[in-house]
Amino acid sequence: MLTFSKIKDTQSFLENERKHGRSIGFVPTMGALHDGHLELMRRAKNENDLLVVSVFVNPLQFNNAEDLKKYPRDLKKDEALLQAVGCDLLFAPQTQEMYPKEETKNYDFGELESVMEGAHRPGHFKGVAIVVNKLFDITGPQRAYFGEKDFQQLAIIKKLVGMESLPVEIVPCPIVRETDGLAMSSRNARLTPEERELAPFIFETLQWAKNNKGGMTTSLLKQKVNELFETRPHFQLEYFEIADDKNLQPVTSWENGRGILGFVAVHLGKVRLIDNIRFI
Ligand code: AMP
Q: Cα–Cα distance between 5 and 75 in angstroms, integer?
């Protein structure tokens, strides 16, 4: 596996690979890799000639300085995992390399960013779009792989690709969970052992909502989920939303023929976790 920290080295190596007709499958990450990331990579490796991964904790997408500071980082361990999964090229730049000057680019994702993560994390999706656009420009992938764990991010990326007419296929990948149901996340490493034991409650509640939605209006279901979290003192629910799978707008009825998901953001101790489940 090659490891590059410079944009130029990465660009010129991959340009040459493309010239020789090799397809590039790209998985952007913020490191602290887990099996959720590795699943994306296995798929990308399978479907392309080259697997390219980036590890970059992107300061622009953090709206909370403490979250950025405490974000888990372990490049040595990541490199070993990437070797094992057959990664061909790791791009791991420093912040200065990615952002030598202030970023002025702005994006308007309209209603997609007016709800849930967009509403609760101001500037987050702008930061995501800036870095993903840059990373696509540097790596020039045929296909890029994103997890449905960050469902709204996936919608934003698809929109970005359309808005900028980027020649890349976005491949959505299902959520990978621990055996007890907790969605894998780099932030799980920050949970205390006690919090980690409590954490499966998040997915249990989403499953409860899915199994009990029949006969309940969407607003009653939302109220019930709120009440369930209120009974658990370690959890602070930021939002539970029931939303359309295309435009991410809240739905007020279980309309037929429409894809609907439940989305949750919750604080467990000092760690903010998100998860989602498909209802319809
Ligand atoms: P991150 O390092 O958290 O920015 O994630 C990098 C990519 O991995 C994103 O496309 C995430 O959606 C995806 N990802 C993270 N956790 C999971 C998971 N548990 N299952 C599937 N994809 C995931």
A: 12
Q: Which of 27, 33, 40, 160 to mutate to test the pocket of ligand 1 (most atoms within 8 A of CB)?
A: 40
User: Is residue 97 within 6 Å of ligand 1 at its C-beta?
Assistant: no
Which CA distances in Å does 225 have to 117, 134, 152, 171, 191?
18, 39, 20, 31, 22
22 is in which domain, residue-wise? 2-173
Nearest to 150 by CA among 179, 111, 186: 186
Our count of domains for the chain comes to: 2
- 195 pLDDT band, cuts 50/70/90, is very high
Q: Which of 33, 35, 37, 128 to probe ligand 1 with, by most ligand atoms within 8 A of CB? A: 37
In short, whether 30's Cβ falls inside 6 Å of ligand 1 is yes
CATH value at residue 256: 3.30.1300.10
DSSP state of 249: -
Measure 78 CA to ligand 1 centroid, in angstroms. 14
Q: Distance between CA 116 and CA 263 in Å, rounded? A: 8
One domain for residues 143 and 261: no
Q: In the predicted model, is pLDDT for residue 106 greater than 90? A: yes
pLDDT band at 257 (very low <50, low <70, confident <90, very high): confident
User: What digits encode the pLDDT tens for the residues 109-146?
Assistant: 999 999 999 999 999 999 999 999 999 999 999 999 99
Kindly state whether residue 280 falls inside one of the protein's structural domains.
no
Phi and psi (nearest 5°) for 104?
-110, -10
Residue 179 resides in a domain: no
Residues forming the active site:
37
Residues 168 and 203 occupy one common structural domain: no
pTM: 0.98
Q: What spatial distance separates the first Cα and last Cα of the chain, rounded to whole Å?
A: 41
